UniProtKB/TrEMBL annotation:
PANTHER family: BIFUNCTIONAL DTTP/UTP PYROPHOSPHATASE/METHYLTRANSFERASE PROTEIN-RELATED (PTHR43213), BIFUNCTIONAL DTTP_UTP PYROPHOSPHATASE_METHYLTRANSFERASE PROTEIN-RELATED (PTHR43213:SF5). NCBIfam families: maf. It holds the Pfam family Maf. Its EC number is 3.6.1.9. It catalyses: UTP + H2O = UMP + diphosphate + H(+); dTTP + H2O = dTMP + diphosphate + H(+). The lineage of its organism: Bacteria, Pseudomonadati, Pseudomonadota, Betaproteobacteria, Burkholderiales. One of its GO terms (cellular component) is cytoplasm. Coiled coil: none annotated. It is an enzyme of class 3 (hydrolase). This is dTTP/UTP pyrophosphatase.
Amino acid sequence: MPQSTPSASLPTYPFVYLASQSPRRQELLSQLGVRFELLLPRPDEDAEALEAERDGEAADRYVLRVCVAKAEAARARLTAGGHAAAPILVADTTVTIDGAILGKPDDVGHAVEMLARLAGHEHEVLTALAVIDAAGGLLPPALSRSTVRFAAVSPDALQRYAKSGEPLGKAGAYGIQGRAAEFIERIDGSYSGIMGLPLFETAALLRTARVDF
């Protein structure tokens, strides 16, 4: 089926605002050929409050809720800053195993605990996407769901990996594109989604928002 293209009667946009500090998301967006400008939180914004879990909240509902909240915060940021009109792209990733949500580790010890929980088991990586169109409307969010199987890994290997610093700042305490690849037996789903920006869903949303790429 051919991909849909924006109507010639409607304006298109040469770039998108990316509300993410993740170098991986920036690299993946560039891989699509999408121009972007960063739209990052102001110092007075409490990003951690947006990511706070709610009791009994399922991981898929959690990541979608957080993503939409971040999109709404980015929309307010854009409006207040007097920027040029263009769509905004927001993504949020979480790791879940046995119903528990594994966010970003607090320190090396916490990273080791998370990795030990993943070793020898399957877990899910969920990445939610939200786009605010140039008129300020929220498009229906998308959710990428992938399964990752970790091999059984020795405690020494987990310690070495955690001390490398790579797990810090990453949901589930690992990055599939880095050294943790040696622990991963298989994946079922989207590799780019596990990295933090599922390209298939991203391209579809950006075309709906009339981003030209």
